Amino acid sequence: MSKIIRLFLIVSAISAGTLLSWSGHAQNTNDHQHTHGAVQPTLSEGEVKKVDVDNAKVTIKHGDIPHLDMPAMTMVFTVKDKAMLENVKPGNKVRFLVIQVSGKLLVTDIQAGQ
Questions:
Q1: Is 3-112 in CATH node 2.40.50.320?
Q2: Does the global pTM surpass 0.70?
Q3: Strands 44-52 vs 57-62: parallel, antiparallel or unpaired
Q4: What does the domain layout of the chain look like in residue ranges?
Q5: Looking at 29-33, 74-78, 110-114, which range is the least confident one?
Q6: 5 pLDDT band (50/70/90 cuts)?
């Protein structure tokens, strides 16, 4: 499945308030190693591209986020608390936790790397 179609499907699912798993559709239906169960949220890795403290937003170029079935991309996230952005700046490598709350993605933890 092309990345554009997959991204469209992810954004559509998120805006509808429902997270759908599309990754299984791109695999052979006989692949018994694919798990269709929920994946526990874990810290993801990325690089900060922009910080907007006033609006509690951070732009992160990140790798795959398995618990959201989200491929690697660059996107803007809202942070739970503006104070979380005090220790990050563009160019920082970060580990962050993003979850879905009421159909929106929310960063609840962000840790600047070394």
A1: yes
A2: no
A3: antiparallel
A4: 3-112
A5: 29-33
A6: low
